[in-house]
Amino acid sequence: MKTILLFLIGFFVMVTGLIEWLFLGFLVWLGLCLVAEVINNIRKQQVVKNQADFWDKT
Fold first, then answer.
1. Distance of CA 16 to the CA centre of its chain
2. Running DSSP on this structure, what letter comes out for residue 1?
3. In angstroms, how far is the first alpha carbon of the chain from the final one?
4. How confident is the model at residue 18 (pLDDT cuts 50, 70, 90)?
5. Cα–Cα–Cα angle for 41, 29, 39, rounded to 5 degrees
6. What is the 3-state secondary structure (H, E, C) of 3-58?
7. How confident is the model at residue 1, as a pLDDT?
8. Longest Cα pair distance anywhere in the chain, in angstroms?
9. Buried b (16+ CB within 10 A) or exposed e, 29-44
10. Quick check: 54 pLDDT over 70?
């Protein structure tokens, strides 16, 4: 009985640890998506600004 109880506790700890790693991976993925969105927005603004400067010069 004690062995089964230890096995169940170990299995529970392993499953919660796995869920924690998945959650941390999801948070890292969200952070990378946020960084990519910010970089994309900055790049789009620079492209629009360059186009406006180009049309102002002509």
1. 20
2. -
3. 85
4. very high
5. 15
6. HHHHHHHHHHHHHHHHHHHHHHHHHHHHHHHHHHHHHHHHHHHHHHHHHHHHHHHC
7. 86
8. 85
9. eeeeeeeeeeeeeeee
10. yes
Sign for the pseudo-dihedral over CA of 25, 26, 30, 33: positive
Q: Tokens standing for 36?
A: 């990519």
Can you give the pTM of this predicted structure?
A: 0.64
Query: What is the dihedral angle through the alpha carbons of 29, 35, 40, 42, rounded to the nearest 10 degrees?
Result: 170
Helix, strand, or coil here: 2? helix
